[in-house]
Each structure stands twice: as structure tokens, then as C-alpha cells.
Design a protein that fits this description.
Blueprint: H1 6-19, E1 44-45, E2 58-65, E3 77-79, E4 82-86, E5 92-96, E6 102-106, E7 128-130, E8 133-137, E9 142-147, E10 153-158, E11 173-175, E12 178-181, E13 193-198, E14 204-209, H2 228-232, E15 244-245, E16 252-255, E17 260-264, E18 268-269, H3 273-277, E19 288-293, E20 299-304, E21 319-326, E22 329-336, E23 342-347, E24 353-358, E25 365-369, E26 374-377, E27 388-390, E28 404-406, E29 411-418, E30 421-423, H4 451-459, E31 462-469, E32 474-480, E33 489-492, E34 496-500, E35 505-510, E36 516-521, E37 531-535, E38 538-545, H5 549-552, E39 568-574, H6 599-617, H7 639-646, H8 665-684
Parallel strand pairs: 1-33
Antiparallel strand pairs: 2-39, 3-4, 4-5, 5-6, 7-8, 8-9, 9-10, 11-12, 12-13, 13-14, 15-18, 16-17, 17-19, 19-20, 21-22, 22-23, 23-24, 25-26, 27-30, 28-29, 29-31, 31-32, 33-34, 34-35, 35-36, 37-38, 38-39
Helix pairs in contact: 6-8, 7-8
The protein binds calcium ion.
The site of calcium ion has 6 residues, from loops.
């Protein structure tokens, strides 16, 4: 910290606390005080010093290396010269926004075994600032308040039943003196909700459950009680066994104009509606946007994009508020481009759909019937008669990576992708309490060994940055990013769009044409959205670089092979000349195991691996480098050590829990047989 006279320092800090007082109505245009950058969550900055004519001179001003190679998804916040960010395992950092000097860090000490409850890496998407405090949701379900000046814990509230597979990865929002937070866990089996806590004390003000209690159970004593019967009428059987899903794990947006909070609600649990709800009903409020009264948390309206959802089509993706001129009238709308591939424009006053159009090829629906607002489903899409290869899939035509909207250009920018997934029912479905419970056999998606076939499949995986005109529901331009799993988006009044990508590049594009104007090679895959801020008249662009997340964790790329380097916060300014070196661990050779197993054992192991292990360690045991490549792991060579890790949980502190609850020692040995088989293949064909 610079040396200030103590009196001067206390005046500065007092000013700091005051300035943080109301992030939503803040007029300090140089700051980035909230998750979505503006009250409308448009991720549009009014700053103009960096524009098409100057961006070519943008260079690294400073960077900060973190202690993790896991995915970094956070949107950093900037207030009064301090940048606040979060990393994997819910750690929190405050740095001087000009010099990069670390001011404080806070480790909430999330138990390593919590990592198993996280479907999509041990990520955190960011903090909220309010009244001199920094609020963060931790992976193990706490909501914590830290002193913004010191990083000291002010209060901590447990927001979940930790005996259930809940996690928090999303950023809290502060609305009217209350901190709003949801949670995740719908791949495992939980019941979704969003809660509001008093920002000063951490005491709960209200909670809204997005899925009803079982018939005959309840009420919950929650804000959702008034609508329980309406919700229950759309469910069948005993959905409460797996909670029903509907987690509010990402979007929570305050719509001041209608005094409401818009929440994005996730997929059903299990995925397959036949298991979840006897194949019947819309299952409110899975895959919906729900508007809640900002004071009471009570229901106002909803729009359900995918009634009776069965594909992991969460509707949690970025919700952006705007006023659009449609048909000559100013319409107060929300825009969303969720996983299912349709771009929605919805009237915020009543939840009525104004328009919907696919922004990538979509095969589960032929479009929305505007008379009913419901999608017209492909009759094969529910994989009742057999395998259905869905595009988009649960990976999402657009996932959590935030999109942005530039009101000057009139365009939304979507980090879009095409990732097909084959769906087939898990028959028979075996409930695995606390583990993954999809009702879908993911193992059929295992990739082939044959190089040509593998190449052909990989060619179907695509990623784009798409500029979308929401009024005309039409694409304005697109950039082909060569593959999926790319970063969130920032746009600015400088006429620019910034987005990072899986290949480790941060790129600036012209907002109206998509022309590439500037590129920085970070050498680290980027999934997080950039932000921009100014301090003392100097504009900066910042982004968290660190690959991982739901797509990146299990996905191997040719471009960035081997163990991933630690992530970094990168901060750029015009004329910046800083640099850094990336430390990379060497690749260990494949471990050749002498044991012989029958082909049946290897096949059994492949099935178990595909359904249980691949979501973290990669399809076909091809590691992304974020987690250890099991084919090269010393553990593979010794049966007893393998059992100690996979059955008993010897490495649970790292997030690798024991699977004794769900697999027998024999099952686990068959997984070893399969991994050993893959290691032998790798030794023969190093490009596998
Ligand atoms: Ca999901």
C-alpha cells in the first residue's frame, strides 16, 4: 500500500466505505461494482478511452498468479481503486487495481471432499459489494460477509443442508439491503431455492422454493408457500425423492422498474422426466425464469422455456434487462439465451414472450408456438424410443459464460457453442444417494479410439461469438472460435467487445462488425468474462484466466496439452508492458500395468468410468490437464493404492472422495482395468 499519513488514510478509507454504500445506484462510472457491471446486468461499460483507434496499443499492466490450476469463472469487482475477485475453492482476494499489490486474501477453507458435490468444477463466479462488505457464497453452502478493507470475516450463514449435495458457485446480489443467493446440485438430487439474507446480520429474510414439496407435505414456511398448489399440479409421483432440481445457480437480477427479482431456474433432477415425475407435467419451475417480489420474495410471474425438461436445459443463463423499441413501442424486456439454443425476449411487466428464435442449430424443437408460448417438441427428443443425439445438449448452446448487450450497437453478444450429446435412458435406473442421478446413460458418449472417427466427432464441436440483434431476432455477425468452452463477454461505449477463449487468447472485436482489432496470447485458457474500469483517468481491462468448469474440466484439447498452469488475474492498460512466465509441469509417461483383465472386465470398467468418472477426468480418460491424467498416474500401477484412493477416499482432501457408497471393490478394479487399457493405448499412440 502507498504510504499515507494515518489521518489521510482514515479519510480515504471512510470515503471508500461510503462510496460502496449503494452499488446498484452508484454513479462512479469508472468502477465495476456489481456482477453484471450495470443495474441491467448488460456488461456494457460507458468508458471510451480504449476504443477501436487505441485498442491496438493495449498491453499487460500487471498480473497476479493464484494458487490454483482449477477453473476461474469470476467477474472481478472494482470499487475505489480496489479490485475484488474470487477463485476456485471460493477464495477471495483484494488487490490494488492500479499496481496489482495484494491487499488481503481470505480462504473460507472449504473441505476438499466438497469438490465431489460440484458437478462442474470447484469454481466461483464472484462476489457482491455493499456497505463496506464483500459477500461470497462458498462451495460448501455458506454465505459469508467480509470487511472490504481488511478481509476479516464479519458474519457467516449456512444456507444449505450440508448433508445433501448442495453447492454454491454463483455470485450473490445485493437488493434493498439484502443479499440474495441460490445454489446448485441438480445433477445429484436436490430441491432448488433462492434466499435473501439481511446484509448487516446474515439473518434470513425470505426463501423461495422453485420446486414444490411432495403432495401432502409442506408448507415450507417460505415465500413460495402461496403457490405450492399451482406448482404441485404440474408434477406427478414422488419427485421429492431427488428434490426435483430447479436450482438457482447463476442468474439473479434486480429489476428496479418493476420492483422484482428475476431468477433463472435450472434443470430437473433426475434429468429424465420419466424418473422424476412419471413422465408427466410441466414441472414448475424447472427451466424457467421466475419473477419474485423484491420485498417479499413472493411469486409474480414466470416463463418456462422447456416444460417437463429432460435434457439438463437450465434456464439459469445471463438475464439482461433493457428497453427495446419493438414495433414502434418502447418495451421493457429481459433477454436470455439459455442452454436450449433459443434467444428469448420477454416482457418484464408480465412475463409474456415477445419473441424467440434459435441462435444455433436446434433439433429438440422446431420453435415456439407464439399462441401458447410453448416450444413445439421434436417427438424423438425425449429419447423414449431410443437414443436421441441432441444439439444443443446439456453442455448448452450458451452456458454460464455471461453474454453482454451494447445498447449503442443494439446487439447482444453470446458465447455460443454446438456440443451434441447422445441421450438414452439409464435402464434400470439405480438411485445413488449423494451421487450423480441423471437417469441418462452418459457412457454411450464415449469417444472412439479410431483417429478418423475421433476427428470427425471433434469436428462437430463448435464455438462462436455471436452478435445478435434482439429486436429483429437475427444474427448480425459471428466469429468462429474453433471449438466450444470459451469465455464470457464485455462490451463498451468504446465500440468494442472483449472475450477470451479456450485457446488462451483475449480478443477485442469491433462491436458493430466483429472485426478483430487486438489479441493477447495469455497462454492460459479463458472462460471468465472480462471487465473494464478506470482509476485516476486511466482505463483498464481485466480478466481472470484459468481453464476448467463444466465443459473445460473433462475436455481435452490439442492446443493446450498437459497439466494446466496456475490461473492469473490479467489487467491491461494502454501502453502496458508487463509480462509473465508460465510454469508448466512436465507430462509423466503412461503407466503400463502388467495385470491382465478379461475384455468383459474392461468393458464393465468403461461403462462405470463413462457414467461416473468421465465428468471430471475426461471422456476416454483423455485428461484436460486440469485434473490428473489417470493414464499417467502412479496410483494406477498398484491395486491396493487404487482401492485406497477410489474406494476409501485417501485423496478426499483434494476433492477425490471415496466411491465405497456407490461402487464395490470389484467395480473399482474394473475401472482400473479400463484406465490401464487406455494407458496402453496412449503408450502406443501418443496423440490419443
Ligand atoms: Ca445441470
Amino acid at each position: 500500500m502507498r504510504t499515507f499519513h494515518p489521518v489521510v488514510l482514515s479519510v480515504l478509507l471512510a470515503g471508500c466505505a461510503q462510496a460502496i454504500a449503494d452499488p446498484v445506484t452508484s454513479v462512479s462510472v469508472g468502477d465495476w461494482r456489481t456482477y453484471g457491471g450495470t443495474a441491467e446486468e448488460q456488461r456494457f461499460s460507458p468508458l471510451t478511452a480504449i476504443d477501436a483507434s487505441t485498442v491496438g496499443n493495449l498491453g499487460l499492466a500487471w498480473s497476479h498468479e493464484f494458487d490454483t490450476a482449477r477453473g476461474l469463472e469470476a467477474t472481478p469487482l472494482v470499487a475505489d481503486g480496489v479490485i475484488y475477485t474470487t477463485t476456485a475453492w471460493s477464495k477471495v482476494y483484494a488487490l490494488d487495481a492500479v499496481s496489482g499489490k495484494l491487499l488481503w486474501e481470505y480462504d473460507p477453507k472449504v473441505p476438499g471432499e466438497t469438490g465431489f458435490k460440484a458437478c462442474c468444477d470447484v469454481v466461483n463466479r464472484g462476489a457482491a459489494l455493499y456497505d463496506g462488505k464483500v459477500y461470497v457464497g462458498t462451495l460448501d453452502g455458506r454465505l459469508i460477509a467480509l470487511d472490504a478493507k481488511t478481509g476479516k470475516l464479519v458474519w457467516s450463514t449456512l444456507t444449505v443442508d450440508q448433508s445433501k449435495p448442495y453447492t454454491i458457485t454463483g455470485a450473490p446480489r445485493v437488493v434493498k439491503g439484502r443479499v440474495l443467493i441460490g445454489n446448485g446440485g441438480a445433477e445429484y438430487g436436490v430441491r432448488g431455492y433462492v434466499s435473501a439474507y439481511d446484509a448487516q446480520t446474515g439473518k434470513m429474510a425470505w426463501r423461495f422454493y422453485t420446486v414444490p414439496p411432495a403432495k401432502g407435505a409442506g408448507p415450507d414456511g417460505a415465500a413460495s408457500d402461496k403457490i405450492i398448489e399451482k406448482m404441485q399440479a404440474t408434477w406427478d409421483g414422488d419427485w421429492s425423492k431427488f428434490g426435483g432440481g430447479g436450482t438457482v445457480w447463476d442468474s439473479i437480477v434486480y429489476d428496479k422498474e418493476f420492483n422484482q427479482i428475476l431468477i433463472g431456474v435450472g434443470n430437473g433432477s433426475p434429468w429424465d422426466r420419466r424418473i422424476r415425475s412419471n413422465g408427466k407435467g410441466d414441472n414448475l419451475f424447472v427451466s424457467s425464469v421466475v419473477a419474485l417480489d423484491a420485498d417479499t420474495g413472493e411469486y409474480k410471474w414466470h416463463y418456462q422455456g422447456v416444460p417437463g425438461e429432460s435434457w439438463d436445459f437450465t434456464q439459469t443463463q445471463s438475464i439482461i434487462l433493457a428497453t427495446l423499441k419493438i414495433g414502434g413501442a418502447d418495451r421493457k424486456v429481459m433477454m436470455q439465451a439459455p442452454k436450449n439454443g433459443l434467444f428469448y425476449v420477454i416482457d418484464r411487466s408480465n412475463g409474456k414472450l415477445i419473441s424467440a428464435k434459435n441462435f444455433v442449430p436446434v433439433n429438440w424443437t422446431s420453435g415456439v408456438d407464439m399462441a401458447t408460448g410453448r416450444p413445439v417438441e421434436n417427438p424423438d427428443a425425449r429419447y423414449e424410443k431410443g437414443v436421441f443425439v441432441a444439439t444443443p445438449s446439456g453442455h448448452g448452446a450458451h452456458n454460464w459464460q455471461p453474454m453482454a448487450y451494447n445498447p449503442q450497437a443494439g446487439l447482444a453478444y453470446i458465447p455460443a457453442q454446438e456440443v451434441p450429446l447422445a441421450y438414452v435412458s439409464d435402464k434400470p435406473f439405480v438411485a445413488r444417494p449423494g451421487g450423480w442421478n441423471l437417469g441418462v446413460n452418459l457412457a454411450i458418449n464415449s469417444l472412439p479410439d479410431d483417429k478418423a472417427a475421433l476427428k470427425a466427432i471433434r469436428a462437430t464441436l463448435r464455438g462462436y461469438l455471436i452478435a445478435w440483434n434482439p429486436v429483429e431476432q437475427k444474427e448480425a455477425w459471428r466469429v468462429d472460435l474453433g471449438g466450444p468452452g470459451n469465455g464470457g463477454v464485455l462490451t463498451s461505449a468504446g465500440g468494442l467487445v472483449f472475450a477470451g477463449n479456450a485457446k488462451g487468447k483475449l480478443v477485442a472485436y469491433a462491436a458493430t462488425s466483429g472485426k478483430e482489432l487486438w489479441t493477447y496470447d495469455a497462454g492460459i485458457g479463458i472462460i471468465a468474462p472480462p471487465i473494464t474500469y478506470s482509476v485516476k483517468g486511466v482505463q483498464y481491462v481485466a480478466v481472470m484466466a484459468g481453464y476448467g468448469g463444466g465443459y473445460g474440466l473433462p475436455t481435452a484439447f490439442a492446443e493446450l496439452q498437459g497439466p494446466r498452469p496456475n490461473g492469473r488475474l490479467l489487467v491491461f492498460a494502454l501502453g502496458g508492458k508487463a509480462s509473465y512466465k508460465i510454469g508448466r509441469a512436465l507430462q509423466a509417461p503412461p503407466v503400463i500395468v502388467q495385470n491382465e483383465w478379461t475384455p468383459e472386465t474392461v468393458a464393465r470398467g468403461a461403462e462405470l468410468y463413462g457414467n461416473t468418472c468421465s465428468v471430471c477426468h475426461g471422456g476416454g480418460v483423455r485428461s484436460s490437464g486440469v485434473l490428473p491424467d489417470l493414464r499417467r498416474s502412479g496410483v494406477l500401477g498398484d491395486k491396493a493404492t487404487w482401492q485406497a484412493v477410489v474406494h476409501d477416499g485417501a485423496l478426499k482432501e483434494n476433492g477425490m472422495v471415496g466411491f465405497a457408497k456407490w461402487m464395490t471393490p470389484e467395480d473399482i478394479e474394473s475401472v482400473r482395468a479400463y484406465v490401464a487399457d487406455r494407458a496402453r493405448l496412449l503408450a502406443k499412440e501418443p496423440d490419443q
